[in-house]
Amino acid sequence: MILIVNAENRSLFVPELIEMHRQRKVVFVDKQGWNVPVIGDMEVDDYDAEDTTYLIAKADGGSAEVLASARLLPTVRPHLMTDLFANACERRAPRGPRIWEVSRFCVSPAIASRRKRIELLWETACGVIETALLYGVQKVTFVANAALLPLALECGWKCARLGPTLPDGDDEITAVVASITPNGLRAVRRRLGIDAPVTRFALSTVKIAA
């Protein structure tokens, strides 16, 4: 299950958001050594604003455990692709009211199984498309590292590189844009073996427990 958390319902999911930021700190700062802002035991930056949308993966059945998360940013305001990764695009990075950026995909550091981590990536990819369709978004952009790039390019949606692959410390990054369409969602679901919607949007905790 992927929870859609935004300005309308974020007050219902404060514990999940706190855990998401804690996991991001462990994964990106403690393990990968990113030089990004930290507040206590949480990784929080300027793009974590009140109007930011998050996707939070949880187990079905009401468990409080956060399994994975991702961040969705409108490109009409400052975002990573233009602020930090403009050199990864051969031309100007796509932006507009119907283009979102996906960033900070993070799997719980407690999950060691590679298979489970990939399953969560697939589920989150479906969640991104479902959420984008819900809000009338036509494209999403993201920066993929060496491990994520082939998985993102092969999951079934129509996508393309925006520029060359660039070195990034001990890793490398590639800017990507993906089209958001109902046909693309069906293709991704078929490719990944997902046969039903994965996202949930709740304005009360009763709906999540049902």
From TrEMBL:
InterPro entries: Acyl_CoA_acyltransferase (IPR016181), Autoind_synthase (IPR001690). Coiled coil: none annotated. Keywords: Autoinducer synthesis, Quorum sensing, S-adenosyl-L-methionine, Transferase. Pfam families: Autoind_synth. Its EC number is 2.3.1.184. It catalyses: a fatty acyl-[ACP] + S-adenosyl-L-methionine = an N-acyl-L-homoserine lactone + S-methyl-5'-thioadenosine + holo-[ACP] + H(+). It is an enzyme of class 2 (transferase). Belongs to the autoinducer synthase family. This is Acyl-homoserine-lactone synthase. It comes from Steroidobacter gossypii.
